[in-house]
Amino acid sequence: MPIVAMTSMASSNNINLVQCHYSQKGYIYTPKNSIFKASLLASGSRNAKILGQTFIVKANVGSFDKGVETVNGKKVNGVHLGDKSGIGSQEYSYHEPDDRGVLLGRFVEKRYVYRQTFAIRSYEIGPDKTATMETLMNLLQETALNHVTSAGLAGNGFGATHEMSLRKLIWVVTRIHVQVEKYSSWGDVVEIDTWVNAAGKNGMRRDYIIRDYVSQKIITRATSTWVIMNRETRRLSKIPDEVRNEVTPFYLDRDAIATENIDHEKIKKLTDETAVRIRPGIAPSWSDMDANQHINNVKYIGWILESVPLEILEKYNMGSITLEYRRECRQSDMLDSLTSVKKRLHEENNNNSTTSDRNTRCTTDKECTHLLRMQDDKSDIVRARTVWTLKH
Predict the structure, then answer these.
(1) Locate the Acyl-ACP thioesterase-like C-terminal domain: which residues (predicted)?
(2) What pTM value is reported for the model?
(3) Active-site residue flag, 292
């Protein structure tokens, strides 16, 4: 994977220089007047296919308390260092081809599908060094929000259109189903496609697929249903015609997951008697709130996992998750997380085998049912179902 590094070095005459390096396919490129020799770097990344970007870095030359001032003409962190006597500046410019928009999302297929690429960061992985379900859900959400913005529809709400903002309306998710074939590792790059379609008379469906950037193999599929809520009354609303006219031109009649493969089964409500583990007293914090002033839907996943037995978390991968969002909770609410576990049997498809033979070749997965509820009145917040497969 290409690496861009900036190294600050001090010379004997008390001058602070900022050197910019760009490495690709095992080589480093440095300014011609570099004060040091570049050593050969072999990143060894499976994502060496990623294309480079253009960087123009302006470095202050002077005392040690000065550093990079601008990148591509923009002030670093909004700080302007100013000009002082005896301090100059120098620009280095590096140009590499960029024909796929690696860092920025773009429309494909006549603006019906929005595509964005992400690298899996070190803080987005779990103990097994692969991306977590929460990471995947955050990336899906980010792609969806950028889709709305890039389409020119974004108003002043979190993913709301212009007409929705005028009417104080926001989108809220009611159900989401995610199927994961493979979790990406730290440093891998994924490519996410998203598109929207109608869901009944007053809903919108948003689908996603995630590909491995190098192999282009689809590794995750997801589908979700959204409805409109009034931001102030917190009550659901019909989709106004003005809003429908905004979003309809972007509708694409395509399913990320075939209808017969989607988890449509009703999720049963857990009780103290049917749950095998209960984690009481979960307290939402201020950081769990999003720009629409409610708990971000991704936060619920972490709270659900609080009551999953440790053995499952350590030995199994979450192959799929289905979430039903039933009501909001506030920062002041206290929650309980409940989980039940059962075996999930799959027979190998071999018509020549006897029933007893097929049974001996059954693979055992785990299926968990989850509930997040209010601690005071026991009312449902989120019901969920997860399927877990043994790690290899």
Answers:
(1) 281-389
(2) 0.72
(3) yes
